[in-house]
Design a protein that fits this description.
mainly beta, globular, single chain, 5-stranded antiparallel sheet
Length: about 120
Amino acid sequence: MFPYESIQITSQDWQRSLMEDVEISSQKEGYSRVLAQIVEINDQRILFRPLENNLYTDEQLCLCLESNYAKDVHLAYQFQKGDEVYLTLNGKYVLHDDGDNINDIAPLSIISTQYINE
């Protein structure tokens, strides 16, 4: 999924690749793809509404674009309100005091649904 996800190869992945194809890095263990819709997007944040998942019960999740953890997310696609995306998440929240009451997340990637057939 490069460039939407960074290429991650660990020594464990390298050893495993000697015997079988490695499609998902061991660094992504515990992560799942969560289908979500963008409900708001601006220079400071992206708000998502989870559509199909069992990781979160929240009505909305926030990616604060000004936070340190958002710098690792590659936004290669110009997202708009209403777009459906897959978020690669581990079910945890991020501590970030941005003044709203919406839980913050730290996705490994945000990928438009047009690129993933799950």
